[in-house]
Amino acid sequence: MSNDTDLQERVTPGTLAERAKLFRGLADPSRLAILEALRLGPLSVGQIVAATGLSQPNASNHLRCLSECGLVAGEARGRFVDYRLADLRIDELLALATELLDGPARGVDACKSYRASP
Amino acid sequence: MSNDTDLQERVTPGTLAERAKLFRGLADPSRLAILEALRLGPLSVGQIVAATGLSQPNASNHLRCLSECGLVAGEARGRFVDYRLADLRIDELLALATELLDGPARGVDACKSYRASP
DNA sequence: GCGAAGTATCACTGGCGGCTGATATGTCAA
DNA sequence: TTGACATATCAGCCGCCAGTGATACTTCGC
């Protein structure tokens, strides 16, 4: 059993679970909607709520998560908080995903193993 | 209510749920372990099982899913099936994720909103 | 100070997805 | 043909995360 774990670790030393967790951060339509909205520029929570249609507590929760994960960064301005993408490579990652969806990964939406919005 | 949906759609026309689903395909440690193993070259199911420590039915299930999604491609060779990454950009995507984890997204593993392996 | 607006936090729940164990299908060797 | 091997499929259970609703906290206008 410890052997199996070792084998798993040997594939990519250490960061396998972390990478899965990173992708999981991007795997939720709500979080993705927030990130997409922020690609155009910084937004306050209220603006994000308006842009995505999420409820305010829900958006706040996801923003907390995204912030802790280092995907977005929030800057308090009075009673408002402006959020922005934490890194340019996040934009690249999203763009690359779009490319794949137009290409080989076109069959994703047909996959029955899991849903888009859980 | 239909207004909120419209707003959501306006962020990225059409492909928001699909992109979430693509990331969800990468968000599982088992699937990610398979993809990582395949980055080094094509492998049969048995070799994947040995490399990842997954059970055979479990690996087969994930391979089916990954194949339907267009992330891997399988080629039957006798009673063996060799799987490989379906596109080079999948490798790029994984590399970009690693970069982010070494950089701004370092706090991902500390995020308590969700786990690495569900 | 007081009320209001913006944001964050909390407990709760329902639905979904990943793992397992058994079984089916298909293919090679003898 | 028969047995063994490689892979695929199936049903069921369990743990979990996303959403909701209520509420607390902070900051601004008056």
UniProtKB/TrEMBL annotation, chains A, B:
SUPFAM superfamilies per UniProt: Winged helix' DNA-binding domain
A GO term, aspect molecular function: DNA binding
Keyword DNA-binding (UniProt): yes
UniProt keyword annotations, A-Z: DNA-binding, Transcription, Transcription regulation
PROSITE patterns for the chain: HTH_ARSR_2
Domain of life of the source: Bacteria
Gene3D superfamilies hit by this protein: Winged helix-like DNA-binding domain superfamily/Winged helix DNA-binding domain
Xref: NCBIfam families: HTH_metalloreg
Protein name: Transcriptional regulator
Organism of this sequence: Paracoccus salipaludis
